[in-house]
Structure formats: structure tokens, C-alpha cells
Design a protein that fits this description.
By secondary structure, the chain is an all-alpha fold. The protein folds into three domains: 44 residues, no CATH class; 139 residues, Isoleucyl-tRNA Synthetase, Domain 1; 47 residues, no CATH class. Helix content is 55%, strand content 3%. The protein is built from twelve helices and three strands, in the order H-H-E-E-H-H-E-H-H-H-H-H-H-H-H. The N and C termini lie far apart (75 Å).
């Protein structure tokens, strides 16, 4: 028996044990021959189609070369999770359209980690236990604008663009914030839970900003102090103030 056939059979067994006998949707995608190795036994076992739509993402590359075991240019999830939270990786993958080849990069993941931390901060004041009905969710104008992109061939990157363009809406209207958070959690699987804080090296540039901010506070220039605080936060430095 060919090695690839064994892999397909193992994958099929996992799908049977973990997933439903018939998935209602896997999204539109390009067919691959290997899919037949999985679809045939599952459909035969249950007597119903395993999936109505079959999705395959485009190739993942490293330095513009296809990621593959034979080339040795691949990473396991265990390797990646040593450096990044699984939610960061989910967020990183969702930022790419599935039809477009993705050039895997730790530097890119680092950048998206900062973006995900920003997203977490946006929703940190929204009660986590809020549950919404489908009707309440669909009544949200922000959710509707996000769905426009998902309906367009699962354009998840465009969906996040719509979300970030409406951050002011989230901050202003609690119902929109609750709906958007519910959507991100239950549709996209992003927990939005705070990530462990990184240890930041205090560079001369950071120290200079900290000193400038202390001078602004001493001078009661609160606008400048707030501006410097926000800049430091973007650099990963969370300043804790003492009462003057």
C-alpha cells in the first residue's frame, strides 16, 4: 500500500471520528484527486455525502518555495506554538484568502500578533458572557457589512478590513460591539482572550519616550502625555501611572 494512501485513510478515520457524518458546507474550492480518497469511503460508510462543498486552500510557501516535507522547509504546529498563541495563528491564517498562495513568515505572524492584540483591546470592555440570538446578530449593521465579504467567496481578509474601518462604531454603540464580538467568537473561532504579555526590552528610544511623558505630566500637558502613552503602548510598553 502506498504511503500516501495510508495518510488518506488515517485522515478519513479522523474525520469519521471527530466530524459529523455529513458536513453541510465546506466552502467552494478547487477539487483535488486526494479528496476522492477521503470522500469515497466516508460517503460509502454513511450513505450520504460527506460534504456538499469541498475546500482546498492554495499552496503554502516559504521564501517563495512550496512548503513540503521533502524540502525540509516546513514547521509543525507544535513548533509554531512554542512562539505564538494558537489564536494568533488562526488570526494570521484568516487574514489570507484561501485561493491565494501564502508565503509563510514568522515576521508576518509577529506583525499580525500586534494587530490581534489591538483587536483584543477593542473588545476588552464588552461583557464576555453576552449571548445573542441569530436575529439580534443579523440586526447589526456591522455584522452585515462583514458578511458581505464572507458571502463573496469567503473573503475573510476583506471582512477584517470592514471590521477595522468601523472601530469607532464599536466604541460608540455597545450593541454593535457585542454583536461583532459574538460573530468573531462563534463564527470565526477567535476567543479574544488576553494574550500573555511580552517582555519588552527598554531601548534608549523607549526610555526617551518614557522620560518625555513624565515631563509632560509634570507640566500637566495631558494631551501630550496621552499621545506618548499611546505610542508606548503600540511599542508593547504599558505605562502604569502614579498619582501626582
Amino acid at each position: 500500500m502506498r504511503k500516501n494512501t495510508i495518510v488518506y485513510l488515517l485522515t478519513t478515520a479522523i474525520c469519521i471520528l471527530i466530524l459529523m457524518p455529513s458536513l453541510q458546507a465546506e466552502g467552494p474550492g478547487r477539487p483535488y484527486l486526494r479528496a476522492a480518497y477521503m470522500l469515497a469511503p466516508i460517503s460509502g460508510l454513511h450513505g450520504v455525502p460527506f460534504a456538499n462543498y469541498w475546500l482546498h486552500n492554495a499552496f503554502v510557501t516559504v521564501n517563495k518555495e512550496k512548503m513540503s516535507k521533502s524540502l525540509g522547509n516546513f514547521f509543525t504546529l507544535q513548533d509554531i506554538f512554542k512562539h505564538f498563541d494558537p489564536m494568533v495563528i488562526r488570526y494570521y491564517l484568516l487574514q489570507h484568502h484561501y485561493r491565494i498562495p501564502m508565503d509563510f513568515s514568522f515576521d508576518d505572524i509577529k506583525a499580525f500578533e500586534k494587530s490581534y492584540r489591538k483587536l483584543i483591546r477593542v473588545f476588552e470592555s464588552v461583557p464576555a458572557e453576552v449571548e445573542l440570538s441569530k436575529e439580534q446578530l443579523m440586526a447589526s449593521s456591522l455584522v452585515q457589512s462583514m458578511l458581505v465579504f464572507l458571502y463573496d467567496d469567503l473573503n475573510t481578509s476583506g471582512m477584517f478590513g470592514a471590521l477595522f474601518e468601523n472601530l469607532d462604531l464599536i466604541k460608540k454603540y455597545p450593541n454593535e460591539a457585542a454583536a461583532a464580538m459574538h460573530f468573531l467568537k462563534h463564527v470565526l473561532g477567535l476567543t479574544l482572550e488576553p494574550l500573555p504579555e511580552e517582555k519588552v526590552e527598554i531601548t534608549p528610544e523607549i526610555q526617551k519616550l518614557i522620560d518625555e511623558r513624565e515631563q509632560a505630566r509634570d507640566a500637566k500637558d495631558w494631551a501630550r502625555a496621552d499621545e506618548l502613552r499611546d505610542k508606548l503602548k503600540e511599542m508593547g510598553v504599558d505605562v502604569q501611572d502614579k498619582k501626582l
